Each structure stands twice: as C-alpha cells, then as structure tokens.
Amino acid sequence: MMSHVLVLSFLVSACGIRLGPSHTQQAYTNVENLRGQSVTMWQTGWSTLVQIPKVIDDEVKLLLRANIQPGAEGPCGPAYIRELMLSGSWLGTGNVFARAGSMESQAPFAVSVGDGPLELLSNVNGTHFVNNSICTIRGKLDVKEPESWGPDVNLLIDAGGVTVEVQQHTMGRFNESSAMFDLFISGLETSGSVGGWTGDDGAPEVPKNCVSMIQLPGHFEQASSVVRFIK
Hints:
By secondary structure, the protein is mainly beta. It is built from 1 helix and 17 strands. The chain is globular, with a radius of gyration of 19 Å.
C-alpha cells in the first residue's frame, strides 16, 4: 500500500498536478483558453464561461453561462454542456436560453428568448431566434465534422462584436440519445476586460478522487464537450 502511495505522489509531483477538493460528481471539459493553452476544467453545474466586463460595477454587457453535467461514464469522466444561458445589454433583448437535444427525440434542441416559450428549429436551413440592430442568433442544421458526426444543430450568436458558435453533437438515436454542445468563442480581444474561462485565473485543480483515474491510459480520449476561445 505504501509503495502505491509513493508512486502516486511521484506522478503528482512530476506532472505538476495540483490537488483540489474531492467531489463525487467531478467531470472534465476540454478547453483552449485565450492564451492558446489546452486545459482541463473540472467544474460541473452552472459555470460562467464569459463575463463582460470582468468586474461588474454597473452594466453587464455579456454573460454566457453553461450547465455542465457529468456523463454516464461516472465520476472523473467527460462532462457535457447541456444548456446555455445568455444575458446582458449586448443582446438587445431578454435572457436567451438554449437546450441541447436530439432532433429525433421528444425534447429536441430549443431556444427561448425572455419570457417566451421554447422555440424549435422550425427551418433547418436557418431559423432566427433573435434579429435586432445589435444581436443576431440564428440556428440551422449543419455538418461540421462529417468524419465523426452526422448533421446536427449549429447556433451562431453575434452580440456586441463577440461571436459564439454553438455546435451540437448527438450520441445515439431517438429518446435514448444524448446531446451536448461544443462552443467556439471569438471577438473577445476587443471587448475590454473579460472574465470566465479565458485563462486569466491560472491552471485548474485536479480533484483528489480523480488523480489516480487520470493516470490510466486513454482516460482523456473519451470525448467531452469542448470550449475553444479563438483570437
């Protein structure tokens, strides 16, 4: 037993891993931050991905939050972005909520604006959910990675010079399926101070209960949701 502890301690030291608090629902999301660094985030639940400005004294210009849930693989496995919430003056409207869901299921991809009902993708060639002088949010059916995924929903958000591309991926069919979002965020370099997962807060900590599991070969080959900040 002692030898196992020593080996684990060596791996932690050699890999520069920092231990974080133990949490049975921890799961990882793959992120490429504004510094161009590939990092692994271990947050689940509602998390702030983008906040403009970083320190809110008065008006929130743009706030992008994601509901990140562990997959069926269990603790320390991949996490999936299931829902998004956008708010702020750059939307020119009320809060915008997006739900991931297979287009073949009884709870498909949908968007709601303000206090309005959930709206489905009524036109697969292009459905405008928001279209005003400062913000457009448009969804369509697209094929982004034909070698890996079939046609799925692509949601393009332009607000205040910031672009958020949301690509849905669906695993399985019909009501047994599982859908998740990947996010590609650009335009932040001209937005002033930005908070969230941009990379200014240092490297994330690895939960204690996940340290031994992430040493297993191929652990991070399991596909999680991806968040990529693009300069």
